[in-house]
Amino acid sequence: MKNVTDPFLFLGFWPSAGSFGLNTDILATNPINLSVVLGVLIFFGKGVLSDLLDNRKQRILKTIRNSEELRGGALEQLEKARDRLRKIEMEADQFRVNGYSEIEREKLNLINSTYKTLEQLENYKNETIHFEQQRAINQVRQRVFQQALQGALGTLNSCLNNELHLRTINTNIGMFGTMKEITG
């Protein structure tokens, strides 16, 4: 196996004047070629590579900023949604409490209204009974009066003469008219 330094030693044996030759030793020429290619790439490619990296960096930073803005907007919307949810929950609780108290109020109002209606119906019933009693009493009075009058007239007719009979009829008609005014 050849030593890596052999090609460099071999250069020392070459005549330095005017000859041009090809070195076919791969191990000796590869590092030189690679260093030249790398040097050219670094010199000319440094700007392009730097621009590519800067553009990539700017796109990444822009994406991060956009993501942060979107995250901030999403957090803001989340907070607004939470506030709305809390507000709606409070309103629902308030409606629930108000609804229960409203139901209780309506129930009490309905019970009170029913009691008042029953009381009014009882009063109407009592008034109707009293009215019917008074009407029945008045009818009985009128019949008793008419029967007593007919009985008295029958007795008078059999006992009286025509002149006394006419006087009694006139007196009874006058009394009957007075009674009719009082009861009517």
UniProtKB/TrEMBL annotation:
It is found in: Membrane; Plastid, Chloroplast thylakoid membrane. Keywords: ATP synthesis, CF(0), Chloroplast, Coiled coil, Hydrogen ion transport, Ion transport, Membrane, Plastid, Thylakoid, Transmembrane, Transmembrane helix, Transport. Residues 64-98 form a coiled coil. GO terms for cellular component: chloroplast thylakoid membrane; proton-transporting ATP synthase complex. The chain crosses the membrane at residues 31-49. It is a single-pass membrane protein. GO terms for molecular function: proton-transporting ATP synthase activity, rotational mechanism. It comes from the Eukaryota. InterPro entries: ATP_synth_b/b'su_bac/chlpt (IPR002146). In plastids the F-type ATPase is also known as CF(1)CF(0). F-type ATPases have 2 components, F(1) - the catalytic core - and F(0) - the membrane proton channel. F(1) has five subunits: alpha(3), beta(3), gamma(1), delta(1), epsilon(1). F(0) has four main subunits: a(1), b(1), b'(1) and c(10-14). The alpha and beta chains form an alternating ring which encloses part of the gamma chain. F(1) is attached to F(0) by a central stalk formed by the gamma and epsilon chains, while a peripheral stalk is formed by the delta, b and b' chains. Belongs to the ATPase B chain family. F(1)F(0) ATP synthase produces ATP from ADP in the presence of a proton or sodium gradient. F-type ATPases consist of two structural domains, F(1) containing the extramembraneous catalytic core and F(0) containing the membrane proton channel, linked together by a central stalk and a peripheral stalk. During catalysis, ATP synthesis in the catalytic domain of F(1) is coupled via a rotary mechanism of the central stalk subunits to proton translocation. PANTHER family: ATP SYNTHASE SUBUNIT B, CHLOROPLASTIC. This is ATP synthase subunit b, chloroplastic. It comes from Ulmus americana.
